[in-house]
Specification:
This protein is of the alpha/beta class. It is 32% helix and 18% strand.
Length: 238
């Protein structure tokens, strides 16, 4: 393990064109549960499966139940960035890290001070009325009773990508460009099973691919370095 971290340190020191691609595991040490681990959201018991609740079809048909789950499980307003978020901000400030591509919707990278963040699955901090498109912040949504409504009477939807919705094409394009231009790609805290986000790794043609995750992934055989550990352990040593 120490040898791998030493090698990773050397790669980071030598490179000024790094891209970071992160999943739910980046935020677990900030107290935000992931989805697929044994303690994750998808292994907890609910009236409906979480994958169903977090779908666009469910949001439209069962808006009240959607918001009950969303307000309880997706509210990260009080969560703080952890060592991983902070280290990435340091690397960005040094000019080494060119982009953070995240599957998370919690906004913790921005809270840590990172600027160039591409949120593939949207953010809890942006919400719009489905009727008139008026913007609402996260506080308004999470503090509302029942279904958050606009002043025009329309239902407010979080700008998060639900199952059945397409990713934002502009964000996707910028993410692909950043990956194609990078010479180092660090993939961390993701099982790489959610498509199309998982397919982004195939756009990397740089020198070093590093995978950091608690469990193995289907892309491990493509990586130069694979570290199976908590991100906090790794980034605190960097």
């Amino acid at each position: 393990m120490k040898d791998k971290i030493k090698e990773l340190k050397e790669i980071i020191e030598k490179s000024n064109n790094i891209v970071f691609f992160g999943g739910a595991g980046v935020s677990t040490e900030s107290g935000i549960p992931d989805f697929r681990s044994k303690d994750g959201l998808y292994n907890q018991k609910y009236k409906y499966p979480p994958e169903e609740i977090l779908s666009y079809a469910f949001f439209i048909k069962n808006t009240k139940e959607f918001y009950e789950f969303y307000k309880e499980k997706m509210n990260s307003l009080k969560n703080k960035p952890n060592i991983t978020h902070k280290m990435l901000t340091k690397l960005e400030n040094k000019g080494k890290l060119k982009a953070i591509i995240t599957q998370n919707i919690d906004g913790l990278h921005q809270k840590a001070g990172s600027k160039n963040v591409y949120e593939l699955h949207g953010s809890i901090f942006r919400n719009h009325c489905l009727k008139c498109n008026k913007f609402y912040d996260a506080n308004y949504v999470f503090s509302s009773s029942n279904i958050p409504k606009c002043t025009c009477g329309g239902i407010i939807k979080p700008d998060v990508v639900l199952y059945g919705e397409e990713l934002n094409k502009d964000i996707l394009k910028k993410s692909i460009e950043a990956i194609e231009e990078a010479d180092v790609m660090i993939v961390a805290g993701t099982s790489l099973t959610v498509y199309p986000a998982s397919g982004l790794i195939n756009y990397f043609h740089g020198r070093y691919l590093i995978l950091i995750n608690k469990d193995s992934t289907v892309y491990d055989n493509k990586a130069n370095i694979v570290i199976n550990d908590n991100l906090g352990n790794i980034f605190s040593q960097l």
